[in-house]
């Protein structure tokens, strides 16, 4: 697969170019390589598509920011990525407002191109899951808001008794054409906002728009293994198209609550378990929690604090692939702050066996002070030095 060209290079603009400069550069490229101007030239079609692909990314603030930061990897997979336009008709549909009637009616050089329709806008909602729900998958009832036909006017935008009339500004077309030399730009009519008609007495509840914001409730199936920030699409539940196109979609943004025992790292779960010194030294069988209940794992003798044990297949699924992650059990040696007399006695015996220097059971403040200065200067205390001198005499 050939490497993708830099989008700024495709349009011939600087990386600091303004939105207006980018749009202007795209229009020039579109005129130069338009298929109607270059019949039978596949190279021109390729450059025409590349220009449209570059403009879709650089003409969108969010996509441009991702592209500036991550390059093509930040936008591939969306329509703004490589090969996003199957044919030139997709380009006319996507950029009708800026590309407009550049080469005659319908934008296709007198060929009578089809009327363009636009999908409705997408909407969003937020879904919060527990870790168990994220692991198993769940059906959730969600609520979101979208514009629907006004109940008072039935979507006409006209008050009771009033009717809609053809827009005198655009002649009912919903779009107007502006000419600048050989370029003819088609834009949405500013008087009727694309509707093609106006009302003399608008509906008061919807202010003549014919739509009102309403709360919608529906159910969505969340697949097993979703993670924080995952988006789940509910097709066709977005805004209706203003010109008869398909409705938009609803995107559910997933949040997963923190779990008191587990941390998630991709498909793996991490559980930290405290152990005693004797368990670490001698080894044992540890009882560990899992998403399915209790289980046991063998801790080998001589375990160190921070060691990780693995339970295969006890982690999280991934909605994009088969298989489960693992449960990673990290052991932390916990030193007791208080000891019983018997425990202290046994530990001191162990220290003697290991020939380790441990703190004595009792030591006065002055004795500790004396030991400190002896350790600091490497010389015996004054009283000890005098005693040593007497002994020499």
Give short descriptive properties of this protein.
alpha+beta; 26% strand; 393 residues; disordered C terminus; 4-stranded mixed beta sheet; 11 helices
Topology, pairings included?
Elements: H1 7-11, H2 19-33, H3 42-58, H4 61-70, H5 88-94, H6 96-99, E1 123-129, H7 131-136, E2 138-149, E3 164-166, E4 175-180, E5 183-188, E6 197-199, E7 211-222, E8 231-234, E9 250-256, E10 262-265, E11 268-275, H8 277-282, E12 284-290, E13 293-299, E14 308-311, E15 317-318, E16 321-324, E17 327-333, H9 341-354, H10 365-377, H11 382-392
Parallel strand pairs: 1-9, 11-17
Antiparallel strand pairs: 2-7, 3-6, 4-5, 8-9, 10-11, 12-13, 14-17, 15-16
Helix pairs in contact: 2-3
Concise summary:
The protein has 393 residues and is an alpha+beta fold. Helix content is 27%, strand content 26%. The longest helix has 17 residues, at 42-58.
């Amino acid at each position: 697969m050939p490497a993708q060209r830099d989008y700024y290079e495709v349009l011939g603009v600087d990386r600091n170019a303004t939105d207006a400069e980018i749009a202007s550069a795209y229009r020039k490229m579109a005129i130069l390589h338009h298929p109607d101007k270059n019949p039978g030239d596949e190279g021109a079609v390729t450059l025409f598509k590349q220009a449209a692909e570059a403009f879709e990314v650089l003409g969108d603030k969010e996509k441009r920011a991702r592209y500036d930061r991550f390059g093509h990897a930040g936008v591939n997979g969306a329509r703004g990525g490589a090969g996003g336009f199957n044919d030139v008709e997709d380009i006319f549909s996507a950029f009708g407002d800026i590309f407009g009637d550049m080469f005659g009616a319908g934008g296709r050089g007198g060929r009578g191109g089809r009327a363009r329709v636009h999908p409705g806008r997408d909407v969003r909602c937020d879904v919060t899951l527990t870790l168990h729900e994220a692991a198993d998958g769940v059906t959730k009832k969600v609520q979101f808001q979208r514009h629907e036909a006004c109940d008072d006017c039935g979507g006409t935008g006209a008050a009771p008794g009033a009717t809609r009339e053809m827009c005198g500004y655009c002649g009912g077309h919903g779009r107007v054409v502006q000419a600048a030399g050989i370029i003819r730009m088609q834009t949405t009519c500013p008087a009727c906002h694309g509707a093609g008609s106006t009302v003399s007495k608008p509906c008061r509840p919807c202010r003549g728009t014919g739509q009102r914001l309403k709360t919608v409730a529906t159910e969505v199936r969340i697949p097993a293994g979703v993670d924080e920030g995952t988006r789940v699409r509910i097709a066709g539940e977005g805004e209706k198209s203003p010109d008869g196109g398909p409705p938009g979609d609803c995107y559910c943004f997933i949040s997963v609550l923190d779990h008191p025992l587990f941390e998630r790292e991709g498909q793996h779960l991490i559980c930290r378990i405290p152990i005693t010194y004797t368990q670490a030294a001698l080894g044992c069988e540890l009882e560990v929690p899992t998403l399915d209940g209790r289980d046991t794992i063998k801790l080998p003798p001589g375990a160190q604090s921070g060691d990780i044990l693995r339970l295969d297949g006890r982690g999280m699924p991934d909605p994009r692939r088969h298989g489960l992650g693992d449960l990673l059990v990290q052991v932390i040696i916990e030193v007791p702050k208080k000891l019983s007399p018997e425990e202290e006695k046994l530990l001191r015996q162990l220290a003697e066996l290991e020939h380790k220097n441990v703190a004595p059971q009792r030591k006065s403040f002055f004795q500790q002070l004396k030991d400190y200065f002896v350790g600091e200067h490497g010389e015996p205390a004054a009283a000890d030095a005098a005693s040593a001198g007497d002994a020499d005499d």
